[in-house]
Design brief:
globular, mainly alpha, single chain
């Protein structure tokens, strides 16, 4: 099953140390689906290994907000 907005409730992007106030204000989520953030990013680490969206869809990358899907 392809990624979709249906995955949004399971998205934990907003709990990631790298997720910023800018991303929050723009309601940016599901970077693994929609691509890079439009905000300036200060890389503070990633919690992708515990992301239900990535686990369910067997995705393997990290830092989707910086590098895109």
């Amino acid at each position: 099953m392809p990624l979709s907005e249906k995955d949004r409730p399971n998205c934990i992007c907003d709990r990631c140390p790298t997720y910023s106030d800018c991303s929050s204000q723009k309601d940016e989520m599901l970077f693994c689906l929609v691509g890079k953030t439009k905000c300036e990013v200060d890389n503070q680490g990633c919690i992708y290994l515990s992301c239900p969206v990535l686990i369910k869809n067997k995705l393997k990358n990290e830092f989707y907000c910086i590098e895109g899907p």
